[in-house]
Write a structure and sequence with these properties.
The complex is a heterodimer. Chain A is an alpha/beta fold. In chain A, the strands form two sheets. A six-stranded mixed β-sheet of chain A has the order 6-7-8-3-9-10, with helices on both faces. A four-stranded antiparallel β-sheet of chain A has the order 2-1-4-5, with helices on one face. Chain B is mainly α. Chain B contains ten helices and no strands. The radius of gyration of chain B is 21 Å and the shape is globular. Chain B starts with 6 loop residues before the first helix and ends with a helix. In chain B, 40% of the residues are buried. The mean pLDDT of chain B is 94. The complex binds adenosine-5'-triphosphate and magnesium ion. The site of magnesium ion has 4 residues of chain A, from helix 1.
């Protein structure tokens, strides 16, 4: 595996292009995420946030540009997908827990199957990551027995168990009530405090402002404005001004 | 017109009926196990990225689903014989029934695979599981659970259809019945008994599948809800 000197970004996109048929979804996107940094991707629906995030974990193949993630050249056709995905954790809006497995089995599956971890060790790990998200008591429950917020926290724990170097979150609270949203956001805050590198697509502007080291505002497939969280309160482009002005900036 | 039924004359042949019923059940058992295996592989193969594998699996499924079982049995029977293979009628029957039910199983399993949400597979890919691991750990059991009633019916149907194996003189239930009725001249009584025996065999199989379901789907056992 390639080494990753601390000066190098964990994730870097350079001039990334991506089209779906005639629709140009990413039109020269560039940004980088340093170790321990939290980056929030914001923008209107359809601006390409999810696509950009999915390109990082190669759920979409790019048409042009360069993506380097933890030393993996993701834009290359010969990228080692399974090595890449051991370094990257991804959590989706719809949780996607495996319904036929208990929470413990959901968590231990990948460490055992992919890393060859011993069952007993994986079970200890499951307890540890569940404690991290405040769900120890749900070890033997099935996903359907959990609330949406609990399922999402379990999905985060499942991802954490692979000990990724960077976590990707795509609107992970969008399907949740405000109350459940806040319990998930607390988990993310704790991860940030622990120094986890994260890229998150979010509509929770107040939260992004509080937690993100950097904001990337996407508009029509381009990085339209980027900077520290303060750009949300004093945007420079009319598009971001309008975006944060349309009721998106609630706490 | 009055019907004179004489069951005792037929029923005294019960050891033969029993042997036939047991053989039918054995045929059904082996063909079910092997057919489930082949059918699942063919269903996976139809989703293969290799056009040759996908095409071969599709050809198999369509060829079998569009020809009569009896013709398939004769093809296997005479085909193997012309290759110089001397196999027992039982072996030939199991082979033919397996090939037959495998194709139907493939179609049912394919529907099961397609019912697995895309997000499940992406989540598994995101955890760095390989394609094979994803099929094995994530797709297979939920897919089987989704189509379990259809699979059960298909395998019960196979057991009933195995009666045509009497044509290649496999000594299963219908063959036994043919023999007894020509011996006793009590055809109606014989086939009433055979029909009842087939119903009992169907119930035995359904009970077996119900029990297997308890083992295969522990979540359902605990929560009682289908996926
Ligand atoms: N697989 C696909 N095939 C075709 N078009 C797609 C595909 N995925 C996304 N698109 C299109 O690309 C554009 C950008 O989609 P994307 O999901 O990246 O937007 P987004 O910024 O995440 O929006 P949202 O806030 O609604 O999630 C949209 O117009 C969408 O319809
Ligand atoms: Mg999106």
């Amino acid at each position: 595996m390639q080494q990753n000197p601390s000066s190098e970004p964990i994730v870097s996109l350079r001039d990334v292009q991506k089209s779906f048929g005639p629709l140009r979804v990413l039109d020269g996107v560039s940004f980088a995420v340093q170790r321990g940094e939290v980056l929030a991707l914001i923008g209107r629906s359809g601006s390409g946030k999810s696509t950009a995030l999915r390109c990082i974990d190669r759920f979409e193949k790019v048409d042009g540009g360069e993506i380097v993630v933890c030393g993996h050249r993701v834009d290359r056709p010969d990228v080692d997908l399974r090595a890449l995905r051991q370094d990257v954790g991804i959590v989706f809006q719809s949780y996607n827990l495996f319904p036929h497995l208990t929470i413990e089995q959901n968590i231990t599956l990948a460490p055992c199957a992919v890393k060859g971890m011993a069952t007993a060790q994986a079970r200890d790990l499951a307890r540890k990551v569940l404690a991290q998200v405040g769900l120890e008591e749900k070890l033997h429950a099935y996903p359907e027995q959990l609330s949406g917020g609990q399922q999402q926290r379990a999905a985060i724990a499942r991802s954490l168990a692979m000990q990724p170097k960077v976590m990707l979150f795509d609107e992970i609270t969008s399907a949740l009530d405000p109350e459940l949203t806040s319990e998930v956001l607390k988990v993310i805050e704790q991860l940030a405090a622990d120094g986890m590198t994260m890229v998150m697509v979010t509509h929770e502007m107040g939260f992004a402002k509080g937690i993100a080291d950097r904001i990337v505002f996407m508009h029509r497939g381009k990085v339209h404005e980027t900077g520290p969280a303060s750009i949300l309160t004093s945007p420079t482009t009319p598009e971001l001004t309008q975006f944060v002005g349309t009721g998106n900036l609630k706490s | 017109m009055s019907i004179q039924l004489d069951f005792p004359a037929v029923l005294e042949r019960w050891p033969s009926f029993l042997a036939g019923a047991v053989l039918t059940l054995e045929l059904a058992f082996f063909a079910t196990v092997l057919g489930a295996l082949i059918g699942t592989l063919a269903a996976v193969g139809r989703g293969s990225r290799s056009a040759a594998i996908a095409g071969a699996c599709k050809f198999y499924v369509e060829a079998i689903r569009n020809t009569p079982l009896l013709v398939q049995i004769f093809l296997v029977y005479f085909g193997l014989a012309s290759l110089g293979l001397k196999l027992s009628a039982f072996t030939v029957a199991v082979a033919a029934l397996t090939i037959n039910v495998g194709a139907y199983t493939a179609e049912i399993m394919r529907a099961g695979f397609e019912a697995i949400p895309r997000g499940q597979i992406e989540a598994a890919e995101g955890l760095a599981l390989s394609r094979l691991q994803i099929y094995w750990h994530i797709i297979l059991l939920p897919a089987i659970e989704k189509v379990y009633p259809a699979l059960t019916s298909q395998f019960v149907l196979l057991m009933l259809a195995s009666s045509v194996c009497s044509q290649i003189s496999a000594e299963e239930l219908t063959a036994v019945a043919n023999y007894i009725q020509s011996d006793t001249y009590r055809a109606f009584e014989t086939y009433i008994i055979v029909a009842v025996l087939y119903i009992i065999l169907s119930l035995v199989m359904r009970a077996g599948f119900w029990g297997l379901g308890l083992v295969l789907f522990p979540r359902r056992r605990r929560l009682g809800t289908p996926l």
